Amino acid sequence: MSFPHLDAAGRAHMVDVTAKQPTVRTATARGFVRCSAEVITALRDGTAPKGDVLAVARIAGIQAAKSTPALLPLAHVIGVHRANVELDIVDDGVLIEATVGTADRTGVEMEALTAVSVAALGIVDMIKGLDRSVVIEDVRIVAKSGGRSGDWVRPGEDAPGDAR
After folding, report:
1. What is the per-residue DSSP string for 11-57?
2. What sign does the dihedral 63-67-68-70 (CA atoms) show?
3. Which residues, 6 or more positions from 26, have their beta carbon under 8 angstroms from its beta carbon?
4. Are 66 and 135 in contact (CB under 8 A)?
5. Per-block mean pLDDT, blocks of 10 residues, the chain (164 long)
6. pLDDT at 78
7. Fewest CB within 10 angstroms: 6, 84, 116, 122, which?
8. What residues have CB less than 8 Å from 112, skipping those under 6 apart?
9. Residue 20: its pLDDT value, please?
10. 125 catalytic, yes or no?
11. Catalytic residue among 45, 91, 125, 138
12. What is the separation of C-alpha 48 from the centre of its chain, rounded to a whole number of angstroms?
């Protein structure tokens, strides 16, 4: 098995995508923030001490998708043309789903994962005073479309947008 981010000597390098044609691509990632019943009540009632937790997390996720190359040294700078972050409060935490889209030479899987991860961190930052045991879980890509490898959906997952 070869890794495209390693050269013949095994050194990390940025993959050259200059010869690739731009195509429409999307990726959807999901994650979960597990938290206490006290936090769930505060989120549902809108009484979290720091304010609107979900609004902050949504904006943090969108901003993160656009900032991915600044965080991941081998990620390409691409045009993020769509970044949607959905958050749903459930009995034991918050479900997060981010879909990122582009019309570029490389995919947006890392942007979707970064959006979910930073949205989750935004939730933790906003609620850590209420629940120090909060946990970020199960951040993963659930679907992608476009590019050379085509469409893919993680087996056992609902289609993007259907997890809620």
Report:
1. -B-----TTSPPEEEEEEEEEEEE--HHHHHHHHHT--TTS-HHHHH
2. negative
3. 82, 99, 100, 101, 102, 108, 143, 144, 145, 146
4. no
5. 70 77 94 97 95 97 97 93 98 97 93 98 96 97 92 90 58
6. 94
7. 6
8. 27, 28, 29, 65, 98, 99, 100, 141
9. 84
10. yes
11. 125
12. 23
CA atoms within 13 A on the CB side of 150: 0
- Walk me through the domains of the chain, giving residue ranges and CATH numbers: 34-145 (3.30.70.640)
- Residue 13's contacts (CB-CB under 8 Å, 6 or more residues apart) are 5, 6, 7, 74
Reading the block at residue 39, the tokens are 């936090």
H helices present in 35-136, as ranges: 37-45, 53-71, 109-127
pTM equals 0.91
Q: Return the residue matching tokens 């009484």.
A: 47
Could you give the CA distance from residue 23 to residue 46 in angstroms, rounded to a whole number?
A: 41
Q: What tokens appear for 32 in the block?
A: 């979960």
- CA atoms of 104 and 78, how far apart (whole Å): 6
CB 95 within 8 A of CB 88: yes
Handedness of CA 26, 82, 108, 80 (dihedral sign): positive
Tokens at 94, concatenated? 């918050």
